[in-house]
Design goal:
The protein is mainly α. It is built from seven helices and two strands; from the N terminus they run H-H-H-H-E-H-H-E-H.
């Protein structure tokens, strides 16, 4: 039901706000667990108090994502979810950027960015070729 159907002015105002409940609780808690672990080790919001290098957190996120991709659900030292650690790294990057404490040490490359987007063309081409091979094989099997 919308504010138009209920006539509730609070609902009309609320519908203009970001729906924070759309972020799954398990995701929030996994990220919070990793942030809490970091807060205990390094102090809460330390990236706001001291500038941080972007690539430190990019590399951390990549390591945790790679660990998850090879089957490691949890970190070995504190048993924090690796995906929560990825989310925490990204959250820190976003927050440090918003608070102007992010040192941008990325190697900017429009060439690399463009190459990644352009790679969609060869993926599509190869997938189409595979469909053609499968159709030819199916036709051959029918005869």
């Amino acid at each position: 039901m919308t504010a138009e159907t209920t006539g509730n002015p609070k609902q009309a105002n609320g519908e203009k706000k970001p729906p924070l409940a759309y972020v799954p609780m398990v995701a929030n808690l996994a990220m919070l667990e990793a942030l809490y672990d970091g807060a205990l080790k390094y102090e809460p919001h330390n990236w706001r108090d001291h500038p941080v290098k972007a690539m430190t957190y990019v590399h951390a996120a990549e390591r945790h994502l790679k660990l998850f991709s090879v089957g490691e659900e949890l970190t070995r030292d504190t048993l924090v979810k690796n995906l929560g650690a990825v989310m925490a790294s990204c959250a820190i990057l976003l927050d440090a950027h918003a608070h102007d404490t992010l040192i941008d040490d990325r190697r900017h490359s429009q060439v690399d960015a463009d190459a990644l987007y352009a790679a969609e063309a060869w993926v599509n081409r190869l997938q189409q070729k595979q469909r053609e091979r499968e159709q030819a094989a199916a036709k051959s099997a029918d005869t």
